[in-house]
Amino acid sequence: MTTMSLSRGHVELLQFLRDRTAVVFTFFFPAMLLLLFGTIFGDEYTDSGISASQVFTASMVAYGILNTAFVTMGSGLAMDREDGTLKRLRGTPMPASAYLIGKALLVLVLSVAEAAVLILVGVLIFDMPLPDASHWVTFSWIFLLSVICCSLLGVAVSALVKNARNAGAILNVPVVALQFVSGVFIQPMSQLPDWLEKFASLFPVRWMAQGFRYVFLPDEAKSQEIGGSWDLGRVAMVLGVWCVIGLVLCLVTFRWSSRDR
């Protein structure tokens, strides 16, 4: 199965790279938003003396992962289901797990590239310092858990997409909404109503963004977080729980064709 998974991942990557529109939108849209927000609010400083542009850079890594993993996985599955790709693969020796792993490999590669672009923009344009080695270890597990849970949720939500042409619009609604309430586009989160803070805390994006801010911002920046702490234990717990939820939803909702029940 490993060989089939790697082979499918290679095919998925080639197909993606041939779609220039998808490449441009996936990699440059989050970077464009970072440049926009960073330029507009770049001269503002938090109470801890950190520039707003650096805070946006750290937070936008979470947006890049959500946009890449959730939307790419969800829309890709919806398209493969509608054009008959999944139906044809069902008649081959390839199991569903190998197909999904191949998709996951594509998402992982794209997420790594997306994060690299955003970090590069932050370092070169907004003078964001790179973290030390111990923080890169933290970055690794937060990054992997984020990619896994967003990918699994993308697979699950794809079952709700009835028309692949509308997949991008449908999947981007929760993506955009969660960015505004999860501390990505609005910082600090204390500016939001209490009920909205509690609502956002139920979803992984808030914890993804908080974890990446820990990685890239100095320790005094934690004063801007809810509770005045990075709370990495809860970051790991929430992301882990959403990985389990996403896996269960995938097992329940995955189907090879739109006619399957």
- The N- and C-terminal alpha carbons lie at a distance of 26 Å
Task: Give the overall shape, derived from the CA principal axes.
Answer: globular
Roughly what percent helix?
A: over 70%
> What is the overall pLDDT average?
84
How many strand elements?
0
Category from helices, strands and their pairing = mainly alpha
Regions with little confidence, pLDDT below 50 for 5+ residues: none
Number of helices: 10
Q: Hey, roughly how much beta strand do the residues contain?
A: under 5%
Our count of domains comes out at 1
- Rg, please? 19 Å
Task: Draw up the topology in text.
Blueprint lengths: L1 H17 L1 H22 L10 H31 L2 H6 L5 H31 L6 H26 L8 H15 L12 H7 L3 H13 L15 H22 L8
Helix pairs in contact: 1-5, 2-3, 2-5, 3-5, 3-6, 3-7, 3-9, 5-6, 6-9, 6-10, 9-10
Notes on the structure:
It is a multi-pass membrane protein. Keywords: Antibiotic resistance, Cell membrane, Membrane, Transmembrane, Transmembrane helix, Transport. It is found in: Cell membrane; Membrane. InterPro entries: ABC2_TM, ABC2_TM_bact-type, ABC_2_transport, Nod_factor_ABC_transporter. Belongs to the ABC-2 integral membrane protein family. By secondary structure, this protein is mostly helical. It has one domain. Helices cover about 75% and strands about 0% of the residues. Helix 3 packs across helix 9. The longest helix is centred in the N-terminal third of the chain and has 31 residues. The chain is globular and about 60 Å long. The mean pLDDT is about 85.
